[in-house]
Recover the amino acids of this structure.
C-alpha cells in the first residue's frame, strides 16, 4: 500500500489553498470595483486608474500588505468623489486604515463597516453622510484607535454601550453633526482617550462624571450643545488636559 494514498490528498490540499487565496484576492478586487461603481468620480481618479489589467495593489490610493497582498489601506481623501459608500467595503477584511475625508459622499455609513475588525484609523470627515453611526463601529471594533466623523450630517444617538470593545480608541471627533441624546456614561471604558470632540451637536443632559475617568484626556471639546447642569468636579482630576471648550451650553457655574 505504501503512502501513495497521500498523493491525492496533497493535491487536493494544494488546489484548496490556491483557490482560497485567489478567492480572497478576488474578494478585495470585487469590493473595490463595487466601491468604484457606487462612486461618482468627477476627476477620473478611479475611472482612469482602477483598471482590471493592473493589480489592485497598484491602484491609486490603495495599499496592500507586503506578504499577503490584501488591501490594508484606502486613502482617497480630497479626490472630488461623491455618491454612496458601497457596503462591499465591509469585505476588505485586512483593512487597517480608511480615509475618504474631504469628498462629497452622501447617504449612510454602511453597517458592514463594523465587520472590519482590523480597522485602526477611520476618517470620513467633511462629507455629507447622514443617518446613524453604525452601532458596531463604536462598540465592536477592537483595533479602532481614531475615528473622525466631523463635518457631516450624522444624526441619532450614540450607543449606550459605546467603548465596550474599543479599548484603544484615543481620538474621537464628532464635531458639527446632528447627534442628540446623552453623552453615554460608558465612555469611561475608552480609557486611552486623548482627544474627545463632540462640539456643535445636540447633546443634552448632564456632562457625565465618568468623563473624569479619562485620565489621558488632553482635549475635551463639547461647546455648542444643549448640555445642562453643573460641571463635574471629577474633570479636575484630568491633569493632562490642556484644552477644554464648554461654551454655548446651559451649564451652571456651579461645580457638582
Ligand atoms: C490597461 O488598459 C488600458 C485601457 O483599458 C490601457 O490604456 C492601459 O495601457 C492598460 N495597461 C496595461 C498595463 O496593460
Ligand atoms: C491620506 O492622504 C493625504 C494626502 O494625500 C494625507 O494628508 C493623509 O494623511 C492620508 N491619510 C492617512 C490616514 O494616511
Ligand atoms: C461582499 O459584500 C456584499 C455586500 O455587503 C455581499 O453581498 C457579498 O456577498 C460579499 N462577499 C463577497 C465574497 O463579495
Ligand atoms: C447633502 O445631502 C442632502 C440630503 O441628505 C442634500 O439635500 C444636500 O444637497 C447635500 N449637500 C451637498 C453639499 O451635496
Ligand atoms: C459585533 O461583532 C460580532 C462578532 O463579529 C457580530 O456578531 C455582531 O453582530 C457585531 N455587532 C454589531 C452591533 O455590529
Ligand atoms: C472613576 O473615577 C472615580 C473617582 O473620580 C473613581 O472612584 C472610580 O473608581 C473610577 N472608575 C473607574 C471605572 O475607574
Ligand atoms: C437653555 O435653556 C433654556 C431654558 O430652558 C432654553 O430656552 C435654551 O434653548 C437652552 N439653550 C441651549 C443652548 O440649550
Amino acid at each position: 500500500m505504501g503512502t501513495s494514498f497521500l498523493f491525492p490528498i496533497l493535491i487536493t490540499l494544494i488546489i484548496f489553498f490556491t483557490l482560497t487565496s485567489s478567492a480572497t484576492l478576488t474578494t478585495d478586487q470585487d469590493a473595490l470595483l463595487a466601491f468604484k461603481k457606487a462612486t461618482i468620480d468627477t476627476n477620473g481618479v478611479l475611472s482612469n486608474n482602477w483598471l482590471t489589467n493592473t493589480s489592485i495593489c497598484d491602484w491609486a490610493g490603495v495599499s496592500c500588505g507586503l506578504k499577503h497582498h490584501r488591501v490594508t489601506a484606502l486613502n482617497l481623501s480630497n479626490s472630488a468623489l461623491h455618491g454612496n459608500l458601497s457596503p462591499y467595503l465591509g469585505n476588505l477584511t485586512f483593512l487597517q486604515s480608511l480615509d475618504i475625508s474631504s469628498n462629497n459622499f452622501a447617504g449612510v455609513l454602511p453597517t458592514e463597516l463594523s465587520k472590519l475588525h482590523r480597522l485602526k484609523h477611520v476618517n470620513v470627515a467633511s462629507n455629507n453622510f447622514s443617518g446613524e453611526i453604525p452601532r458596531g463601529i463604536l462598540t465592536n471594533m477592537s483595533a479602532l484607535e481614531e475615528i473622525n466623523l466631523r463635518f457631516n450630517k450624522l444624526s441619532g444617538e450614540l450607543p449606550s454601550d459605546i467603548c465596550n470593545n474599543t479599548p484603544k480608541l484615543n481620538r474621537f471627533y464628532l464635531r458639527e453633526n446632528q447627534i442628540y441624546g446623552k453623552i453615554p456614561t460608558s465612555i469611561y471604558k475608552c480609557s486611552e482617550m486623548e482627544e474627545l470632540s463632540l462640539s456643535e451637536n445636540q447633546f443634552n443632559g448632564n456632562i457625565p462624571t465618568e468623563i473624569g475617568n479619562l485620565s489621558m484626556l488632553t482635549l475635551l471639546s463639547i461647546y455648542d450643545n444643549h448640555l445642562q447642569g453643573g460641571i463635574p468636579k471629577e474633570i479636575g482630576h484630568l491633569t493632562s488636559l490642556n484644552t477644554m471648550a464648554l461654551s454655548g451650553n446651559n451649564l451652571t457655574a456651579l461645580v457638582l
Remarks:
- Residues 228 and 251 are 5 Å apart (CA to CA).
